[in-house]
Design brief:
Chain lengths: 296, 463
């Protein structure tokens, strides 16, 4: 198990996501290709390679992927792909792969190339942390799927409203299926996010987190929860479906991504451990590897 | 013959609905049309996709004059129909065809070649209804009636000899496809039919297979109940429309109401009760039943007949080969019709020529039989009468044949005039009256009229 294996897995994962993205894009724009089988299979393959890459890279770096903050976006996108593979047929959202594959690719790249990287210091590690991170990542993965369904809903809704029902509209899932899928993904992700928020609050109190970036992340976390809660509540109570719910879902996912990005670009804080580049880096094939050094 | 109207090809539904006329006002409309001195016969056809008047010009000084007078009369009738002070601003929407073009048009319309959904079967029934209404009103009597009836035969040929009607996508089934674009599987959707006419029945046939349940809401509860029972659905009177909309997902409106049955305010109230659940409304009525602004509401989608055209375009591409075959049939029928119709124009001349020749010979024979041939027996007299008959036939065989051959050529008119002049036959207007008497054998319904059977002349239209 070395950095070369991690790099090979990284390249293979990225290739699978690129191929899936191309197939979905070709289908959407030109109406050609088989998105019923090949596209989802490539995403499934990508998720498998992605999981292998995370395991190998975390072993090489000696970082727990769900405890640290090294892989959050990467893990979330991998989970999103897995959830898509299992839910796509039941919810009739195969074409959502057109968003899932590029999103997964972007997350994979961002987690590798963006940010200085920092890991939590030994003093702040707690049994709550992996629990908190895992739940949040599952939640974000499901919100990613809800986001994809919501975006496709808005596109399809625009076609149907403008009565432009030929062409691309034929290749998109039915409006109601997209709305239903978006709602179910939100419903599935919301309890995970809720527990994630609670555990995060407990954890933050325990380690007395108080840095500006910590507060900002927490604030965006609460906003994400509020937005998603609002979307679900208004849908149930006031009939906020369709376009309004789609906009709310997109906003909620946007805040969730913001939290992840803040983790990703996290600089040194009293609770963080910097990840310094050394001779062989699994995060960048041509760059030296990272080794973990506790920030003084 | 002149036809003027608007169709889905020339005018949007908001224009077409201004011209539309329900069955209840057709007798009055037809009476007004036939009261016009410029029109000999008329028929008013009003469907979802077209409103048009077919008129047969009264013979005038010239064919062109008669045609123009008929055109003006039909335009005036259409102006009255929309209650406008002038029809000029609507001229862009109108099409006008005359002569063979008009005949081709009615053949194509009946054969569903001019329909939004090619090959759809409803149009033939609608043309037959218009025919029956016109015959009942005394507006169709001879030539135009035959032409329309001939169109039925053309439609049947197209249906039997091409695949144009096979696996046909009707407006209703196109609407179902569109509903599936919104709801996916209709197995969980409730379909509400507002109106219980033929279109509603078609919609029920298309939707019955895939929808969870069908509900029928109609002004006449009895009709709603009959239709609902036929498709295992539930009926409701029209005053329960709001409650029905709340529990339905797909609504197909096809009433003959002149005003909006489903308004924006109504749907706004309904959507509150539905908690924003998607509502898809298909308005296949002309005039429209659903206020267009309803489409602006969130999660509400309204499509009218014109909006279904994109779906239909796909259908047309697939039927291109069958369309070409059907057009060939129409052209062949048109040629036969034109030859027959032109032959009909020389018939009065042939009849007049025979009458004159026979009259002269019989008169001469009578005079001789009263004088020098007084001594002849009854048998000899009969033989002489038979001889006169044979002589008339032999003498006129060549001119009759040549006149009929020339009937389909452009110089037929000159030849007819020459014969009239040379043999001092009655004037052409009188001959035209003769033609009408010959062909005035129209039965009272579209089902009852055999094409050109019982024609006084021997010039039957070939089948």
């Amino acid at each position: 198990m070395n950095e070369l294996s991690a790099n090979i897995l990284f390249v293979l994962t990225a290739s699978a996501y690129v191929a899936a993205s191309a197939i979905f894009l070709r289908f959407l724009v030109r109406g050609k290709g088989d998105v019923g089988k090949l596209g989802p299979r490539l995403i499934a393959l990508g998720a498998l390679l992605h999981a292998a890459h995370i395991v190998v890279a975390s072993l090489v770096l000696k970082v727990c992927p769900v405890e640290g903050i090294h892989f959050p976006m990467s893990v979330a996108s991998m989970m999103m792909c897995v959830a898509y593979v299992f839910a796509r047929k039941r919810l009739r959202v195969e074409v959502a792969g057109a968003f899932i594959a590029p999103l997964a690719l972007t997350s994979l790249m961002a987690s590798r190339f963006v940010g200085g990287g920092a890991e939590p210091g030994e003093g702040i590690k707690s049994f709550i942390l992996p629990f908190h991170v895992t739940l949040n990542l599952f939640g974000v993965a499901l919100f990613g799927l809800a986001f994809s369904a919501a975006t496709l809903y808005l596109v399809q809704e625009r076609f149907v409203k403008s009565k432009n029902i030929d062409g691309m509209s034929r290749r998109l899932p039915p409006l109601d299926a997209l709305d239903r899928a978006e709602h179910r993904f939100l419903l599935a992700g919301f309890p995970l996010l809720t527990i994630g928020i609670i555990t995060g609050t407990v954890w933050a109190k325990r380690v007395e987190a108080g840095a500006t970036s910590d507060i900002l992340r927490a604030a965006f976390g609460y906003v994400t929860w509020l937005v998603i809660a609002g979307v679900l509540f208004l849908r149930a109570a006031a009939g906020w479906r369709g376009r309004r719910a789609a906009y709310g879902t997109i906003a909620g996912f946007g805040f969730a991504v913001l939290v992840l990005v803040l983790y990703l670009v996290r600089k040194d804080t009293p609770h963080a451990v910097a990840v310094q580049p050394t001779s062989t880096d699994v995060r960048a094939p041509s760059a030296p590897i990272l080794s973990r050094t506790v920030v003084p | 013959m002149v036809v003027i109207g608007v169709s889905h090809k020339t005018a949007p539904v908001d224009v077409r609905e201004r011209f539309a006329a329900g069955a209840e006002i057709l007798p009055e409309l037809l009476a007004r049309l036939t009261a016009r001195p410029e029109l000999e016969e008329a028929m008013f056809l009003s469907t979802c996709n077209r409103v048009e008047i077919l008129g047969l010009a009264k013979p005038g000084r010239s064919l062109e004059d008669a045609k123009q007078a008929a055109s003006r009369a039909i335009r005036e009738a259409l102006r009255e129909q929309i209650g406008a002070s002038s029809i000029d601003d609507l001229s862009d929407w109108l099409y006008e065809k005359s002569g063979d073009e008009a005949v081709r048009h009615i053949f194509r319309v009946a054969a569903s070649l001019d329909s939004m959904v090619l090959g759809e079967p409803q149009i033939l029934g609608q043309v037959k209804d218009a025919y029956d209404a016109a015959v009942a009103a005394g507006a169709l009597r001879s030539h135009l009636a035959r032409c329309v009836h001939r169109a039925f035969t053309v439609a049947k040929r197209v249906r039997n000899e091409t695949q144009l009607g096979a696996g046909i996508v009707s407006i209703s089934s196109v609407a179902v496809d569109l509903a599936k674009r919104i709801f996916g599987d209709l197995a969980t959707s409730t379909v509400l039919l507002v109106g219980a006419g033929e279109m509603a029945e078609q919609a029920a046939k298309s939707l019955g297979k895939s929808a969870k349940s069908i509900r029928v809401c109609n002004r006449s509860f009895e009709r709603a109940a009959t239709l609902a029972a036929a498709f295992g659905g539930t009926a409701a009177p029209l005053d329960q429309l709001e409650a029905e909309l709340v529990i339905s997902d797909v609504v197909v409106a096809s009433t003959s109401s002149k005003t909006f049955v489903i308004t924006r305010d109504l749907v706004k109230r309904v959507m509150k009760q539905r908690k924003g659940k998607t509502l898809f409304l298909i308005d296949i009525a002309v005039p429209r039943n659903i206020e267009p602004d309803v489409h602006k509401l969130d999660n509400v989608y309204v499509y009218n007949v014109d909006d279904l055209e994109a779906e239909v375009a796909q259908n047309m591409k697939a039927r291109h080969g069958e369309v070409a075959l059907a057009e060939t049939i129409v052209e062949a029928e048109l040629s036969e019709w034109a030859a027959w119709a032109r032959g009909l124009n020389v018939n009065p001349t042939v009849v007049a020529l025979r009458a004159k020749t026979r009259g002269v010979l019989v008169a001469e024979l009578e005079r001789s039989l009263g004088g020098r041939l007084k001594h002849l027996t009854e048998g000899d007299r009969a033989a002489l009468t038979q001889m006169i008959e044979s002589a008339t036939n032999k003498l006129l065989h060549a001119p009759t044949t040549r006149l009929k051959h020339a009937a389909s050529s452009s110089d037929a008119g000159d030849l007819v005039h020459a014969v009239h002049h040379l043999f001092d036959l009655p004037a052409l207007a009188e001959a035209s009256d003769e033609r009408d008497r010959d062909s005035r054998t129209v039965k009272t319904t579209s089902e009852a009229v055999p094409a050109l059977e019982g024609d006084a002349s021997n010039d039957r239209l070939p089948h």
